[in-house]
Amino acid sequence: MRPGQDIPGAPVKGLRARLQNFSIVSLRDLVVATGPTILMVAAAVVLAYWWVDPAPPRTLRLATGQENSAYEQFGKQYASVLARDDIKVTLSGTLGSQDNLQQLLAGQADVAFVQSGSTDDKTGNADSVERRGLVSLGSLFTEPVWLFVRDEAKVTRLPDLRGKRINLGPEGTGVPRLVRQLLDANNIAPGALTISDLANTPATVELLAGRIDGLVFSSAPEAPLIQMLLQTPGIRLFDFSQAEAYTRRLPFLTHVVLPRGIVDLGRNIPNQDYHLIAPTATLVAREEIHPALVGLLVKAATEIHGGAGWFQQQGQFPSPKYTEIPVAPEAARYYRDGPPFMQRYMRFWLANLAERLWVVVVALTALLIPLSKIVPPIYVWRVRSRVYRWYGELRAIEQSLEESGADATDAVRKELLGRLDGLEDRVNHISVPLAYADELYRLRSHIHLVRERVRGVHEEQAAQPLA
């Protein structure tokens, strides 16, 4: 056995364990002293989590558009982007802008794509919809009016549509109203042409089969049907050569140009610049949408629509401009200042929690300052009380000695000495941190002092007969 090595089972090991116990801070007393404070703070945080500002919902209903439309394609992109932050987007296929607007007003959708010029009612009062609890999250992209006609129709100006078979799509798309406004600007009565209301896909089939002379879309160029018709022989895109005049007559329209060769540079498609008129697609939400979701939707819109395109420059969209509906304050703040500070460095849900509870954290910090001054005295009192509570019994023994006085019998003195031995034995098993060991040793010295007094009385009585 090496020098200095402890012998298994030796008393040294037990002594070391006892010394270690004395040197450890009293965790039990610390927990008891701080427990009420911790529970109170935790309860306040939990209460604030549910009461200060409800957490944003994890589901969102987005009204998109017809099959194979740009609205449908963009809706899928929004669902994919928001899924990264655990937001499930339920896509609702609709007829288009007017249908989306009605779903928003009826509470069947939370967010929807709405085309500019669609928010006025039949009386032409655009403010009527704005006052019905809808807010804009910004304009997203221009939606050119695409009038595709067969070559043999020989349509070069809108008045040439008289007598032609033209599909405008269902009423819910918003296109019929827009085209009627264009026809009215040209003094063309709707009855002067044969109008059908087929959806985009079946209308395209009818156009390719020659059963109609033309069809009208209002969509972003990303729509698959637009891409296909721009490259289909025998189908020609109508050139709005008077586009600037149309934008002056109908202020919600803008003049855009489809550049020559933008579809296919190698095949020079299209073979000329086309002037188009374009409303603007807007992301519209119900007024009660959670503020945190507004920022998340604008962030998604920036990722999806922020690049350069056929009709837009880098960073032009999304934008708080070009919208007829008032922009939500949270969206306007995002456009002005960018994403909230915490969302720049944290995931959405963690940042949202911190943003919702920061007021509570400040209040709790102010509460913890006085509480932190209360906890240490409570801890000290609990540790010292382990020692001080034995002074009551020690004082009772001393009082019994004083009451018996000089006439105390041997039995009384033995009983007092036995009580002192029992008290000392129990005190020896008290465990206190070393910082408070002086209190323990002081108690033990006081026990010894009382014992000496008892023994002193006994010795005095034993010496009296000798005197």
UniProtKB/TrEMBL annotation:
Pfam families: NMT1_3
Identification of the protein by name: TRAP transporter TAXI family solute receptor
Record-linked Gene3D superfamilies: Periplasmic binding protein-like II
Keywords assigned by UniProt, alphabetized: Membrane, Receptor, Transmembrane, Transmembrane helix
Organism taxonomic ancestry: Bacteria, Pseudomonadati, Pseudomonadota, Betaproteobacteria, Burkholderiales
NCBIfam families: TRAP_TAXI
Transmembrane stretches, start-end: 30-52, 357-381
Highest taxon of source: Bacteria
